[in-house]
């Protein structure tokens, strides 16, 4: 994941947010989303407590699509 450093004006707008926010350009087109990090929590606090055997079961039953197929479909929709 990339990081973007925000200026003090933008930082002031983001502080205190408790729910996700859309970032838009001046024409109202959505550029992305900002999800505030929960205050007082560390990344370790957000880890799921899922037993290893459950993760193995989920992986064995995964029926995803190859990335190349997804990209090709996305390219056709452009």
Explain what this protein looks like in three dimensions.
The model has no long low-confidence stretch (mean pLDDT 86). This protein has one domain (8-77). It has 78 residues and is an alpha+beta fold. It is 35% helix and 12% strand. A hairpin with a 5-residue loop joins strand 1 (21-24) and strand 2. Strands 1-2 form a two-stranded antiparallel ribbon.
Summarize the structure.
The protein is an alpha+beta fold. The chain has three helices and two strands. The protein has a two-stranded antiparallel ribbon.
Question: Which labels suit this protein?
Answer:
12% strand, 3 helices, 78 residues, single chain, alpha+beta, 2 strands
**In percent, how much strand structure appears in the residues?**
5-15%
- Number of discrete helical segments: 3
Topology as H/E string? HEEHH
Which radius of gyration do the C-alpha atoms yield?
19 Å
Unreliable stretches covering 5 or more consecutive residues: none
Work out the count of structural domains.
Answer: 1
Span between termini: 25 Å
Number of strands: 2
Largest sheet: 2 strands, antiparallel
Query: What percentage of residues falls in helices of 4 or more residues?
Result: 25-40%
* Strands side by side in the biggest sheet: 1-2
Question: Mean pLDDT score, rounded?
Answer: 86
Query: Which structural class fits the helix and strand makeup?
Result: alpha+beta
Question: What overall form do the CA principal axes indicate?
Answer: flat
């Amino acid at each position: 994941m990339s990081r973007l450093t925000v200026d003090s004006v933008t930082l002031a707008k983001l502080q205190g947010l408790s729910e996700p926010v859309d970032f838009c350009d001046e024409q109202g087109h959505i550029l992305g989303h900002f999800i505030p990090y929960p205050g007082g929590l560390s990344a370790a606090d957000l880890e799921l407590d899922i037993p290893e055997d459950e993760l193995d079961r989920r992986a064995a039953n995964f029926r995803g699509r190859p990335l190349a197929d997804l990209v090709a479909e996305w390219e056709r929709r452009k």
